[in-house]
Amino acid sequence: MNGKTIPMIENCEGIRGTGYDGDIAVDDIKLLPGPCQPTGTCDFEVDVCGYSNTRNGDNFDWLRSAGSTLTANTGPSVDHTTNTDQGFYMYIDATGRNKGERAWFYSQYFQPSPAACFTFWYYMYGANVGSLRLYKPDPSRTVMLWNATGNQGNIWRQAFVQINSSTAFQVTFDGEIGSGYLGDIAIDDVALHQGFCNNFTTIAPSTVTPMTTVSYPPTKYDCTFDSKNICQWTQDTTDQFSWTVHKGSTTSLDTGPTFDHTTNSINGYYIYIETSSKHPNDTARIISPMMSLSTSGQCLKFYYNMHGEDVYKLNLYARQGSSLGSVLWTKIGNQGNVWKYGSIYLTPQSLSPSASSTVNVQLVFEGVVGKSYKGDIALDDISVNDGLCPPSGKTYDNLWR
């Protein structure tokens, strides 16, 4: 319009159906500069672009990750889009899986097309890699469009798949576990193009600025303590004393932090255990809301301060029912007057006792008193994200409530 800016209002309209089974929801609305990416295009840098794991029928889920996978000598170390450990891709983790287990990753529905070319980059590196297949599920039958099996080398490779459909269609990535844990499989830069694949002999992935900060949506487990409470966490009633919400230095000299982690000032709040007038091995615990922990896992992130010559121990548990189980993470002794970052990737298989499928747990932080008052321990900025923890060296932002 002659270079002029025109104000506009976007409306989302929900229309009621014929019964109560008709709820409609929207989420994560964004307005971005430039034209929209074609339907089916995704580099996984921000989200999964309408692709999704299935809720039933397979054995586990595809994961969105950056950097190397959790197991050496399998999977990529960088994504395809940015060719760095800051870029994201989707993958299946073979660790803890049985041979033949499968994970399905579905596209949204695409418009009918007499000639469409579906392209993607895949990474199948490892001595025990199984199979990667692409299907087009139809009402009457499911058609396999493409497949690869076994170790394809430590490199991203591109696939071109011709599709002809007179009806709306979707595609499904099917990752199958091979004979061992060295079998991670990854995909990146998926796209659907109109036309024949021989017209797309070289398709460059989209150019993006590598992300240095990962943003995660808020969860009910997140807490900065700056509301002067412990959010949705609760104090355990079976321990010897409670964690204290506090700002500035603790009441004892030469122990505890001098400021919080969130604001890096004396005005910000954190929680800590005050060890004055306590007995050695006395404990204080805080308990998270109930967490439904699935096989795709969740990452707990937090900052801790363990400053003082008689600091003893900070433990983390995942309580199942009334049982704390075994310690999943621990830190012992004086760590200096500094806030340190801690994280742990939790899956049902990593628990003690372990589980093979989704399990309900509550996370428990436990501070244990040392031999004197110089043993204060503090926590701040607790948060949780779905899937793997941010790669080493990557910063992150949680979108606090």
TrEMBL record:
<feature type="domain" description="MAM">
    <location>
        <begin position="221"/>
        <end position="391"/>
    </location>
</feature>
<feature type="domain" description="MAM">
    <location>
        <begin position="40"/>
        <end position="199"/>
    </location>
</feature>
<dbReference type="InterPro" id="IPR000998">
    <property type="entry name" value="MAM_dom"/>
</dbReference>
<dbReference type="InterPro" id="IPR051560">
    <property type="entry name" value="MAM_domain-containing"/>
</dbReference>
<protein>
    <recommendedName>
        <fullName>MAM domain-containing protein</fullName>
    </recommendedName>
</protein>
<dbReference type="Pfam" id="PF00629">
    <property type="entry name" value="MAM"/>
</dbReference>
<dbReference type="InterPro" id="IPR013320">
    <property type="entry name" value="ConA-like_dom_sf"/>
</dbReference>
